[in-house]
C-alpha cells in the first residue's frame, strides 16, 4: 500500500466508499478517517486528500475552510456527490454523503 494518498488509484478503491468522514482540526491536520463507521488509516484512504476537495462557488479548498469558527454548515459539490462541512466545536467533519465511481476521470 502506498503512503502517498494522492497517488492511490481512486477507480480501484472507491468501490469501498458509501460514506466517508474526514475528521480534522482547525489547522487542517487530518485526525482520522471513517468509512461507514470503520476507521481507516492513511495507507488505504481510497478517495481524497483535503486539497483535492473543491468548495464550489467559494473557490477554496476544504483545508482552507477548516478554521473558520463562525462556519455553521455549508454544502458543496464533490464530483457527483455532496460534501457537508459541520462545525463541532474544534473538530470539523467533512462528510461525503455519496461517491460514484463513474464520475472519476
Structure at a glance:
The chain is mainly beta and 105 residues long.
Layout of SSEs?
Blueprint: H1 10-13, E1 20-24, E2 30-35, E3 38-40, E4 54-55, E5 60-61, H2 62-65, E6 73-78, E7 81-88, E8 91-96
Question: How would you describe the overall organization of this protein?
Answer:
The protein has about 100 residues and is mainly β. The chain has a single domain (about 5-105), classed as 3-Layer(aba) Sandwich (Profilin-like). It is about 10% helix and about 35% strand. The chain has helices spanning about 10-15, 60-65, and strands spanning about 20-25, 30-35, 40, 55, 60, 75-80, 80-90, 90-95. A six-stranded antiparallel β-sheet has the order 3-2-1-8-7-6, with no helix packed on it. Strands 4-5 form a two-stranded antiparallel ribbon. A hairpin with a 2-residue loop joins strand 2 and strand 3 (about 40). The chain starts with 9 loop residues before the first helix and ends in a 9-residue tail after the last strand.
Amino acid at each position: 500500500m502506498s503512503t502517498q494518498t494522492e497517488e492511490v488509484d481512486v477507480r480501484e478503491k472507491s468501490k469501498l466508499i458509501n460514506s466517508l468522514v474526514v475528521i480534522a482540526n482547525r489547522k487542517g491536520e487530518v485526525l482520522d478517517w471513517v468509512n461507514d463507521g470503520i476507521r481507516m488509516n492513511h495507507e488505504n484512504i481510497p478517495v481524497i486528500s483535503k486539497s483535492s476537495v473543491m468548495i464550489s462557488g467559494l473557490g477554496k479548498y476544504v483545508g482552507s475552510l477548516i478554521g473558520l469558527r463562525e462556519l455553521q454548515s455549508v454544502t458543496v459539490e464533490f464530483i457527483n456527490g455532496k460534501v457537508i462541512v459541520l462545525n463541532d466545536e474544534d473538530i470539523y467533519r467533512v462528510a461525503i454523503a455519496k461517491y460514484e465511481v463513474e464520475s472519476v476521470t
